[in-house]
């Protein structure tokens, strides 16, 4: 202890006596050989201090402080960085806060220098992944203490939060780090790190969003829904920074969920044909007609363009092997889907959406945010139809888009998540109007199936039956159909295929006459959402299109008589009160 006091006197009185240097330049600081010898052993001294050996670590910690003051500004940031990257417990982490408290008066800019030096070591690869992950976790812990009102490390957490917010561009790539523990620690830090007061630049924002979305799906694949909390919190905060941030988050989330690499997370079919084909045809790569056709059709053709591609096999190698479908446990699929939808709902929620009366706490979704999801859906499923007319053409027009409609129907069958995303869009009228081309293509594909079916009932086509019911229910939820027509899916399971086709044709006819256009919706301030008053449209309650439904009911009155009350056109006042 006496030696420490002597060193302290030498460090703080290095400039000499007050009278020296009055008649000339001030003398150089007096060297301290002992501290000069320790200059290159800061890492070892920090390691010994963190061992927390009784009594020893106290004077070792004091020695670190004296060395930092003596060699300023080099050893102070280095020592603080070593402590932050090696501390494995709150007790060890408190040594960093105590060192900062002792040096903050004499060393200016200590934290920014320590932060920059550690990040430089991370990106240079000189800081090993376990220490990098520990450094990021400790930073997240300090910032979290500051946000919770902790007393000891609060100032350090606030200062480090400011330093981290100034280096978001350097932290974002760590979300893509190949080591899982580093990427997860970076997500934990960025999830609570304060953003700069000025708006994020477009490059910073897009970089963070892309890395955050990648982290979300990687965590979902490796750890399941419990592991996506940090990534979800980060993306939710990014969506609240600006309208551009909201649009980027929603677009990349939807595109990522529909990407073939993530499709199986949400119950989608994984097409292994490409992998099998590449292995089979490796010796004869030039013989693959499929690869040649794909190269020629790499560009997105315009409406009505040629999309025909040979998919049967490889010339000289025979037919492709049977399609391999990898499926996950249904409970896991539901859990993953709910996690994604929950994140999308949080991002799409309008401010104050839970305060509307009669909503049972359900969040009110922003129509603009839901519109962004709808537009992304169209661009992902059918890019050649993006920007198509919202109005519905005559049913005969479907003959000119058979291939596109079949492609849309096949995509819905391969990826059940599309139906859940349509339900999300339908919950915020009039956003579903912008999915008109998808609804039209799916409806046309279902009409073609039911027309070709020769079975006596719909039980032989379970997927098409479920898709038909879901499609009509979604259009009713999105206020594209009046309640009387929107309830018809309740009887589909009791009908023959040709009767289902007749009812779906009546839906097509109604949508042709009463197109799904956003200008037909009015804002109802009491409910805080847009509604559609069908009574103001001529025949908007169903009119002649209900005649087909009533005819089918009469034909099956013995089985469907109890359903007749569900298909009566409501009064205008009732329709306005229901809203959807």
Automatic annotation (TrEMBL):
GO terms for cellular component: integrator complex. InterPro entries: INTS5 (IPR040316), INTS5_C (IPR029444). Pfam families: INTS5_C (PF14838). One of its GO terms (biological process) is snRNA 3'-end processing. Signal peptide: none annotated. Residues 3-560 form the Integrator complex subunit 5 C-terminal domain. This is Integrator complex subunit 5. It comes from Mustela putorius furo.
């Amino acid at each position: 202890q006496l030696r420490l006091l002597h060193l302290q006197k030498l460090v703080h009185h290095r400039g000499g006596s007050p009278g020296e240097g009055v008649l000339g330049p001030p003398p150089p600081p007096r060297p301290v050989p002992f501290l000069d010898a320790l200059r290159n052993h800061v890492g070892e001294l920090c390691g010994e201090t963190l061992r927390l050996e009784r009594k020893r670590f106290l004077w070792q910690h004091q020695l670190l402080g004296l060395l930092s003051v003596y060699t300023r500004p080099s050893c102070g940031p280095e020592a603080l960085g070593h402590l932050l990257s090696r501390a494995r417990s709150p007790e060890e982490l408190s040594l960093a806060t105590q060192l900062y408290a002792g040096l903050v008066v004499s060393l200016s800019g200590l934290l920014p220098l320590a932060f920059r030096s550690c990040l430089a070591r991370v990106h240079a690869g000189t800081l090993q992944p376990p220490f990098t992950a520990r450094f990021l976790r400790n930073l997240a812990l300090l910032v979290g203490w500051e946000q919770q009102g902790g007393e000891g490390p609060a100032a350090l957490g606030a200062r480090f939060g400011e330093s981290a917010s100034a280096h978001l561009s350097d932290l974002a790539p760590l979300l893509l780090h190949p080591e899982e523990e580093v990427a997860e620690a970076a997500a934990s830090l960025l999830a609570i790190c304060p953003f700069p007061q000025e708006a994020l630049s477009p490059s910073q924002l897009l970089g963070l969003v892309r890395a955050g979305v990648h982290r979300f799906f990687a965590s979902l694949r490796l750890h399941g829904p419990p592991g996506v909390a940090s990534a979800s919190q980060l993306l939710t905060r990014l969506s609240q920074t600006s309208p551009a941030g909201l649009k980027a988050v929603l677009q990349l989330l939807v595109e990522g969920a529909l990407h073939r690499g993530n499709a199986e997370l949400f119950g989608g079919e994984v097409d292994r044909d490409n992998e099998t084909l590449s292995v089979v045809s490796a010796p004869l790569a030039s013989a693959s007609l499929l690869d040649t056709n794909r190269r020629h059709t790499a560009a997105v053709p315009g409406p009505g363009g040629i999309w025909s591609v040979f998919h049967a096999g490889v010339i000289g190698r025979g037919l492709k092997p049977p399609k391999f479908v990898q499926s996950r446990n249904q409970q896991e699929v539901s859990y993953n889907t709910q996690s994604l939808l929950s994140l999308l709902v949080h991002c799409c929620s309008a401010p104050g959406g839970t305060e509307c009366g009669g909503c049972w706490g359900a969040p009110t979704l922003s129509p603009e945010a839901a519109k962004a999801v709808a537009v992304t859906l169209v661009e992902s499923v059918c890019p050649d139809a993006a920007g198509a007319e919202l109005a519905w053409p005559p049913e005969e027009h479907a003959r000119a888009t058979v291939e596109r409609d079949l492609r849309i129907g096949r995509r819905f069958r391969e990826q059940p998540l599309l139906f859940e995303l349509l339900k999300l869009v339908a919950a915020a009228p009039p956003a579903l109007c912008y999915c008109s081309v998808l609804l039209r293509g799916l409806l046309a594909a279902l009409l073609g199936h039911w027309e070709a079916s020769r079975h006596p009932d719909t039980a032989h086509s379970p997927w098409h039956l479920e898709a038909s019911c879901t499609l009509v229910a979604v259009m009713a939820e999105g206020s594209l159909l009046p309640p009387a027509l929107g309830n018809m899916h309740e009887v589909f399971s009791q009908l023959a295929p040709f009767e289902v086709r007749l009812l779906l044709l009546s839906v097509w006819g109604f949508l042709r006459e009463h197109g799904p256009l956003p200008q037909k919706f009015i804002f109802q301030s009491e409910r805080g959402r847009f509604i559609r008053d069908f009574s103001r449209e001529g025949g908007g309650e169903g009119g002649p299109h209900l005649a087909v439904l009533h005819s089918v009911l009469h034909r099956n009155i013995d089985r469907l008589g109890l359903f007749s009350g569900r298909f009566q056109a409501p009064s205008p006042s009732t329709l306005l009160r229901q809203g959807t």
